[in-house]
Amino acid sequence: MASVGKHIRRLRSTCGMTQEALAEKLFVTRQAVSAWETGLSLS
């Protein structure tokens, strides 16, 4: 799952978005985005 997190982080960074900005667009918390990027959770 770490590769999914790396992909999310790379795409987010390429778009110049913060975790907070991505979280707002996806209607989740910043902590959820962080968990995805670190491979802790994808739910």
Question: Topology of this protein?
Answer:
Layout: H1 2-14, H2 19-26, H3 30-38
Structural notes for this entry:
This protein is mostly helical. The protein has one domain (2-38). Helix content is 70%, strand content 0%. Helix 1 packs across helix 3 (30-38) and helix 2 packs across helix 3 (30-38).
How would you summarize this macromolecular structure in one to three sentences?
The chain is mostly helical.
Which keywords apply here?
single chain; 43 residues; mainly alpha; 3 helices
Q: Span from first to last CA?
A: 12 Å
Order of helices and strands: HHH
The total count of strands amounts to: 0
How many helices in DSSP terms? 3
Strand content: under 5%
What level of helicity do the residues show? 55-70%
Catalogue the unreliable spans. Answer: none
Determine Rg (CA atoms, Å): 9 Å
In the residues, how many domains can be counted? 1
Major β-sheet annotation: none
Backbone shape: flat
Instruction: Report the structural category.
Output: mainly alpha
